[in-house]
Amino acid sequence: MTLGAATIQITPSIAAVGSQYRAWLVDIWGVMHNGIEAYPAAVEATRRFREQGGIVILLSNSPRPAESLQRQLNALGVTPASYDATVSSGDLTRHELIKRKGARVFHLGPERDLPIFRGLDLTLVPPEEADLVVCTGLFDDETETPADYDKLLRALAKRDLPFLCANPDRMVERGRTLIYCAGALADIYEGLGGTVIYAGKPYAPVYDLAFETLAGIAGRPLSKGEVLAVGDGVHTDMAGAAAFGLDMVFIAGALHMSPSPIDDTLEELALAELFEGLPPPLAAMPRLSW
Q1: Average pLDDT, integer, range 206-230
Q2: Is 197 helix (H, G, I), strand (E, B) or coil?
Q3: pTM of this prediction?
Q4: What is the dihedral of CA 72, 217, 236, 159, to 10 degrees?
Q5: In this structure, are residues 10 and 266 in contact, taking their beta carbons and an 8 Å threshold?
Q6: Rounded mean pLDDT, 183-211
Q7: Which architecture characterizes domain 5-90+202-285 according to CATH?
Q8: Above 50 in pLDDT, residue 2?
Q9: Structurally, what CATH architecture does the domain formed by 91-198 represent?
Q10: Are 167 and 136 in contact (CB under 8 A)?
C-alpha cells in the first residue's frame, strides 16, 4: 500500500492537535533533549500543555530508573515544570529483575547505568559466571559499534543466557551524532538465536506502566482516546503507540530524517516514504513546539 503524502498533516505547532487530549506520553531523547542540552521549544510546549490542565508523562527507553533519569533531565535543562512524571525502560527493567531474586547478572553497558541495579537482590558477575545478561548499551558508545561485540555476544548466545534489553532503541541522537544503543546489540543477539526480553517501547508493558502512572495522577483510569503519543522513533515511539491504540505526533529529527530539518520545512514525500505501509501519525513536526 502506498501512503499518500497528504495523509500526514505537517504543522509547526502542536497546540491545535494536542490540546484536545487529557494527557501526552512524550519521548525524551530526540524530542525533549539531544543528550547534551534541552530543546527549549519542547520544554515550553509541555509546560504550556500542563498549564492548561494537561498531564505530561515523559516516556523513555532510557535504562535509567526514575530518580536517576530526573536528575539527568534537570541537568540538561528539562525542568520539573514541564512534566508530571517519568516512566522509563529502566523502571520496567527493575520490575523484571525483582522477579529474578538472587540472579547472577552480567551488566553489558556503561558504569553510568549502574543505578538500575541499586537495592535489588542480585549479584553482578563477569559474563562467564552469569545466568542473565542485562544490556543497557555499549560500554563506550562514543568509540564502539555493535561489530565490536561479535565475539562476546556469540559466547553469551552459545550458553543460551536470557538477554534483558533495558533500552530497545537501536540509535539515538547525541548532539549532532547518532550513537548505538542496547537495541542494536539485542538485534544481533536474536540473530544468533539468543532469547531477548525487551523492556520499553514499542512493547506493551511499558505503556501499561505509563497508564498506571497516568491513572494515579488523574485520579481515574484514562481511556486510550484521551492520550496522545509524541516521539521521533518510527519503530519504537510510533509503532508502539499505534499497536497500543494511541494517536501520535511524529517529531522529524535526525534519527530518520537526515539531515534533520533546520527550519519548519518538512518534505511530504519523505514523510510518506518513511511511513509507507505503517500506521501514520496525526501530524508531523520538525521539532516539538507550542
Answers
A1: 97
A2: strand
A3: 0.84
A4: 80
A5: yes
A6: 95
A7: 3-Layer(aba) Sandwich (3.40)
A8: no
A9: 3-Layer(aba) Sandwich (3.40)
A10: yes
